[in-house]
Amino acid sequence: MLALCTYPELFNSPEFPEDVKNRARRILNSFLASSVGNPRLTTPVSTGMTHPSLIAGSYTDSAGNETVRRDIAAFIERRDGFPADYRHVFFTAGATEAIEDILQLVLTSPEEKPAGIMIPIPQYPIYSALIAKHGAHQINYYLDEDNDWSLDLAELHRALDEARDHCTPRMLCVINPGNPTGQVLNVENMKEIIRFAHDNRLVLLADEVYQENVFRGKEWNSFRKVIMSMEAPYCHTELASCHSASKGCIGECGLRGGYMQLINFAQVVYDATAKLYSTKHPGSLGQVVIDIVVNPPVSGEPSHDTYMEEKKKIFDSLEQRAKLITMLFNSIEGISCRPITGALYALPRVFIPERAVDEAAKCGMSPDAFYCFQLLEDTGICVVPGSGFGQRPGTYHFRITILPQLDVIEELVARFRVFHMKFLKHWK
C-alpha cells in the first residue's frame, strides 16, 4: 500500500492484490492527491495511472487527515469495545512528538512551582529529556523488579509525597508494555494506578507503543478500556494515550507515524490542543503507515491470509526469542532476568563485585557502564547500561534487545557467558 501511494504507476501491476489497491485509492483520494504529497491536478485515483511518479510532501490537515483519524478511532473502538471520537485523535510524528505535546498541556506558568511529572524508573530516556527541556520537575517512582516490574501503590504515594514541596504534581506517566523492562501490567494493577491518578488529580499518560508486542499468553489491555469499564468517578479519569507505527510487526521507525488520543478532558483542553496542532504540518507518509497499522486486511479480503501468516511468523519468532534470552541469562551465575512478557527488550540485573564497583568509580564511570564497556571491548557485544534508564541505587542492569535471530542469540549469550565468568573471576 505504501508503494502504491508513493508510486501510483504500480496500480497497473498485477503483483498487488485488489484490496490493497482499493485501500491505496481510498487514502490517495482522501488526501486529495494523485500521489501522496501532491495537489490533485487530475481526476481522483482510479484503476490505472499513466503519469510519471511524483514526490511525496504536501500539507494535510493540521491534526492529520480526517480519513486516517477516523480509521484510528475505529481501531480504538474495536480494540476497547467503547466508542471513540476521531476529533479527539491527533496524528503525531511518532510517539515522541505525542509525549511532548501531552507534556506541554500540563505545564505551569513561570511564576508557579514547576509542573511535577511522575515517571517510572527504569524509564525510556525521552521522558527525562523532555521534562528537562520544558523546565518541569521529574518525580521518580521505582518499578518493583521482584514482582516483574509492576507498579507498587505505596511507592507511588512515597514519590508523590516527597515531591510536593518542590513542584505542583500534574501527570503520571506509565509505559505499558514496559520499555526497557519488558513487562505487561495486569488489570488490577492498572485499576490501582487509575484510582491513584484520579484521587491525586493527575493526568494519566499511557505510553502504549508496544501494545502488539505481548508474549507468554499475557493479555494486554489499554488504560482507556480499563478506565471506561470502571464505575464513577474513576471512569472520568483524564487520560492521554499514544501509539506508534515504529513497533509491532510494522516497525517503520523512520516514517514517523503515530497518534495521541485524549479522553475525559474539559472542552477547553481539546480547544487548546487543536490550537497547538494548528501550527503543525504532519507528514503524509507517516499518516499512510499509521493507517496500515490501524486498518489491516480483514477476513475475506485477498491479502488477509498472507498478512496473518506473515504477522504470526514474526510474533511466534519474537516470543521464542523472548523465552530463550530469559532462560539463557538466568542460567548464568550473577545474572537475574525477569520474564519478558512485552515490548522488545530484556533488562537483566548483573551483580557486580565490589572491587569492580571501586574501579569504576576511579574511572569516573557508573559500575554498569564500566561493565558494559568491558563487554563491548572484549566481545563486540553492545548493550545499554541500566544507569541510562535509571535504577534503584545499589542495583545494576543492562538492556538488550530480543531482535536478533534465535541462532544469533544463542551464540551471543555463549560469548557473553565466557566474558561474564572471566569478569567475576578477575574482580572478586
Description:
The protein is built from 14 helices and twelve strands. The chain is an alpha/beta fold and 428 residues long. Helix 5 links the parallel strand 2 and strand 3. It is globular, with a radius of gyration of 23 Å. The relative contact order is 0.12. About 3% of the residues have low confidence.
Q: Portion of residues in helices?
A: 40-55%
Count of DSSP-assigned helices: 14
Briefly note the structural class of the backbone: alpha/beta
Question: Looking across the biggest beta sheet, what order are the strands in?
Answer: 1-7-6-5-4-2-3
Low-confidence stretches: 39-43, 47-55
First-residue to last-residue Cα separation? 57 Å
**Beta-strand residue fraction:** 5-15%
**Biggest sheet descriptor:** 7 strands, mixed
Mean pLDDT equals: 91
What is the string of helix and strand elements? HHHEHEHEHEHEHEEHHHEEEHHEEH
- The global form is globular
Q: What is the count of β-strands?
A: 12
Question: Rg to the nearest angstrom?
Answer: 23 Å
Please sum up the structure shown:
With 428 residues, the protein is an alpha/beta fold. The chain has helices at residues 2-6, 18-30, 66-80, 94-105, 126-133, 153-163, 187-199, 223-229, 267-277, 284-294, 304-330, 354-362, 367-379, 406-427, and strands at residues 89-92, 115-121, 137-142, 168-175, 203-207, 239-244, 258-263, 335-336, 345-346, 349-350, 384-385, 398-401.
Indicate the topology.
Layout: H1 2-6, H2 18-30, H3 66-80, E1 89-92, H4 94-105, E2 115-121, H5 126-133, E3 137-142, H6 153-163, E4 168-175, H7 187-199, E5 203-207, H8 223-229, E6 239-244, E7 258-263, H9 267-277, H10 284-294, H11 304-330, E8 335-336, E9 345-346, E10 349-350, H12 354-362, H13 367-379, E11 384-385, E12 398-401, H14 406-427
Helix pairs in contact: 3-10, 4-5, 11-14, 12-13, 13-14
